[in-house]
Amino acid sequence: MGITRFPTVEKCTSEGREKHTVVADLDGTLLRNRNSFPYLALVAFDVYGVLRLLFLLLVLPLAGILYYLVSESAGIQVIIFTTFVGMKVSDIESAARAVLPKFYSEDLHPESWRVFSACRKRCVLTATPRIMVEAFLKDYIGVDIVLGTEIETYKGRATGFVKSPGVLIGKKKADILLTAFGETQPEIGLGDRDTDIPFMTLCKERYYVPPNPKVKAVTIDKLPKPIIFHDGRLVQKPTPLMALFIILWIPFGFLLSCLRIMSAAFLPTPLHYYAFRALGVRLTVKGNPPPPKKSKDQSGVLFVCCHRTLLDAVFLSTVLGRPIPTVTYSLSRFSEIIAPLKTIRLTRDRATDAFVMKKILEEGDLLICPEGTTSREPFLLRFSSLFAELTDELVPVAMVNKMSMFHGTTARGWKWMDSFFFLMNPRPSYEITFLDKLPYGFTCKSGKSSHEVANYIQKVIAETLSYKCTTLTRKDKYIALAGNDGTVMKKP
Question: Where are the transmembrane segments (predicted)?
């Protein structure tokens, strides 16, 4: 009968568990997905790119044969070796902290989470390398103890092999659980396959999590901590079929992105809209765009938008039909060269930056995207207050972009590739909403402080996008994801 002799997790009550300890397997138990390949593929692509992803996909059939015909341990070892061999430990830890939590959080099993979250002490026991899962389990869902397979390292790099006692399967799970808990017997054990039985028998109550691909994941609002910051290039979880499609698409997608970039670089701005439309880029405009400056005495309009990608200014100029200069705190040299618009790098000296932007506004319109103000999740970071002091001609712009394969931003990778990755999507889209010009009563001239004006603009953009405002800053974002303040240093 195997594990099916145990009652299912639906029969486990979550009431009165405040002082209890729960021990759960990860793949197929705490997570709906029984296969760890998509998460290993995310690490492989994030650290070493498409070639490592291709290598991992080619090895998958061999790993499957070993898994089902020889032993689970042998199959998992092959996948671990292929994924990690040669990688810097710091890169693996970075991917585990910045990339994986979003995908793990979207895969939590509702019944397992109901029981797991009700207990005071939580332990996860998994064959997946601990280095991959510990950041998510401890930082986001409050796991106290993570017992996973340990990888071998040499001079800061993974060798691809695993440390003794090997991959945590079957009796090895029970042995490491005994080492961790000693004579203390956990109240609840959750598992999904026969190899989980040895550790489950060490618990007072044992419950089986049956496979059910149709079960809906735990909703975001039920997680103890929201995931605000997320990095990585892939939009979707790379199942084997999706990974194959990504590998086959990248060569064609890169050529398509180059064509899209060249159309913006060499065609006049009024023709950009038609060129993008012909090349599969969808642009949607809402609201009433302000007309261009009509006289020298009139101040230009300062557009304030939530930052999405480096292409914000390009698409804003496209829908307005005229080039709009933009300012940025951080831009790679290559991105600066291929930019079809005038781009001004700010110095972080408030007085100098204000002087430069006022000069530009005397000549025409200007776009400022407080970089990093939008996370990939429905949150807005705190806006800088500098722009509020420049002019009263402030027009908030809410931007939404949609991608099916690749994210067009990164905090940890090659930022000069951001535009290419966004335009490598088969049908990328931008929705640009022009909000009403800021009323006089909400400008600095009416007596409002620059911080009040910035907070008001953040609020109206957030309401338009149905996002939540936060007090987190761009610096917080880069420290969380990349361990730096996000500045791209300009070489002398």
Answer: 39-59, 241-262
